[in-house]
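Table S2 (continued). Query chain:
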Amino acid sequence: MRIEFTRWGMEFAIMGLIVRLVVGDVFLRVPMVGLLAWNQCGLTLDRWADAKHDPVV
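Corresponding output:
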């Protein structure tokens, strides 16, 4: 389990689940399911087959 506080927000990771809360942005990555990102541009959903090799930025 890891909790990291940064200048603009925080990141919480446990096993493969990653939750990142940054000013104006929410990012949730669930292993074997996919990822969800929500920001001022809208809501983005990717299934795991497409997102598993994407780096967590």
